[in-house]
Amino acid sequence: MSVASRLLARRLRLPPATHRVRVDRDVPIPGADGHILLADRYYPLPRLSPARDTAAPTAAAVGPRSPHPVLLVRSPYGRRGIFGLLHGRLFAERGYQVVVQSCRGTFGSEGTFEPYVHEKADGLGALAWIRRQPWCGDVVATIGGSYLGYTQWAVAGEMEARLAAVVPTNTTPHFALSAYDGGSFALANALEWTRLVTTLHGRGGLARHLADASRGGPRALRRGFATLPLADADAVATGRRVGFFQDWLTHAPPDEYWTRLDHRPTLPDVTAPVLMVTGWYDHFLPWQLESHQVLRAAGNPPRLVVGPWTHLAGSAVGTTTRETLTFLDAHTRGIAAAPPAHVRAFVTGVGGGWREFPDWPPPGTVPTALHLHPGGLLATTVPPAGTVPPAGAAADVIRYDPADPTPSVGGPHLGRAAGVTDNRILEARPDVLTYTGPPLPDAVEIAGTVTASIPISSDRTTFDVFVRLCDVYPSGASMNVCDRLIRLAPEPDTPAGTVRAARLELWPAAHRFAPGHRIRVQVSCGAHPRYARNLGGAEPLVSGTTMHVATQTLQHDPERPGTIVLPVLSARSADVVG
């Protein structure tokens, strides 16, 4: 064992290593179109301790037992340093062969890196090459998160993949869903990832990226976020124009650019056991849970673990690695009992903790509607008819100025400021409305997808609506639970001023509102730079520069009230676990 792997294994609370490891560097693997993609192969040497390999096989073993199952990891982030340690050495020290391959056009692999485009063909090519090697038995699996998870979905449903297990974490089978969530462009994620990738692929790699981020990176990103037109944002943030960022701006779903990269149609064809690990504040969460439901419907129920994490949370690494090892030991080596295909989820909030659910969304939840009232009240009753003036419904007004856009605070995104934060400064802005319920006499636990319907009009034909659910502590701190934005595009024969229903499915959540806390709903018309600001005009996303101030009016008609629906857990919906 290396000193680094010993220290990291201890920090992650991994089981003891059983093998010394050898690494073959820069192994050439033919990719699609004849390109050579480089990989590092980690493989075990004779055992340090026989304990893990002498356990009796179980029925969970897949096919003839290979001495050392092979794990394929395909990454655009490099093969050395922390990436090689986490995905290669730690697993090889515990009895696995690991092939860590650099995606096309990255870290010595030939070709041009075009995100998502070549992962199916190159991934199937890598699997075919692995199976031809004399050191490969019959058991091959895949692991990895985020982009590494997408490379797994690209091949998992293909017959020729013949995978024994699939472990895609913090990911989605179709990146367009997050890139254009709610009909808006996910500017912060897109630009931050573009900067990350271009820096990693330049001279100095990860070390340069970290040093650059500590010096001027965040300032360059902030300048990029503020840049109009968006076509110039990549040059401001990275120093050059980036082809794939330009493609993302000019090709909105369901453009063919994106549909060819969608691997959701093959999810029902995945027959290998699947483990998925994610977090409540991960920006891919809704689509990870959607993948879980598709697999269950196809008769292949996966193991799902959801923690109180953001996409880049270091606190998630230990749980993810331990869950992965347990899962692989069961399904590729037969030396452990297979973990149940249940949902293990962390309920956030005071008094929450880990729960086991039989499915997601949990059965037995009770939809509970809360309504927005004039004066900032949130109640189970609709606004009474007596509060409506004769001339029309009472209303609250949001004046949205794209030159001073409502900022994004916390929530599910790629940046370091993601996650839970106190929203009081945000809620003090004049362009943010809040509706708050009374102190709760008893705890309220929710698990599932929160929905909202907001009747609203605008003096522009296109505008955004952002809705956030918060937990207000007795101290006054307003902590975000879940949220989402929807862009209302112009509609034929719908003039400005027409009342429209903004219907949103907020981020999935599992949260406990403790006694004495209050439930709050925010309504605003933007969350920049998480979502690109709506300029209020008809100019294309890529080239728009003219900013129009928009005035939105939230209606309080008792016949059509603003409503948020909470999936409230019943007492028998979950079991408390350690």
Fold and architecture overview:
This protein has 578 residues and is an alpha+beta fold. It has helices at residues 3-12, 81-92, 119-132, 147-156, 176-179, 187-200, 205-215, 217-226, 233-238, 243-250, 256-259, 285-297, 315-333, 424-427, and strands at residues 19-30, 36-47, 70-75, 97-102, 140-145, 165-169, 275-281, 303-310, 343-347, 353-357, 366-373, 377-379, 395-400, 432-436, 444-458, 463-472, 478-488, 500-513, 518-524, 550-555, 563-568, 575-576. The protein has 3 domains: 3-172 and 258-341, Rossmann fold, CATH 3.40.50; 186-251, no CATH class; 366-576, Sandwich (Jelly Rolls), CATH 2.60.120. The protein has 14 helices and 22 strands. Residues 53-66 and 388-393 have low confidence and may be disordered.
Q: How many DSSP E strands? A: 22
How many distinct folded domains? 3
CATH class of the largest domain: Alpha Beta
As a whole number of angstroms, the C-alpha radius of gyration is 25 Å
Helix content: 10-25%
- The number of helices is 14
Compute the separation of the termini in Å.
Answer: 31 Å
* CATH homologous superfamily grouping of the largest domain: Alpha/Beta hydrolase fold, catalytic domain
Average pLDDT level: 91
The name of the CATH architecture of the largest domain is 3-Layer(aba) Sandwich
Q: pLDDT below 50 for ≥5 consecutive residues: which ranges? A: 53-66, 388-393
Strand content: 25-35%
Shape: globular
Per CATH, what is the topology of the largest domain? Rossmann fold
What class do helices, strands and sheet pairing give? Answer: alpha+beta
Most strands sheet = 7 strands, antiparallel
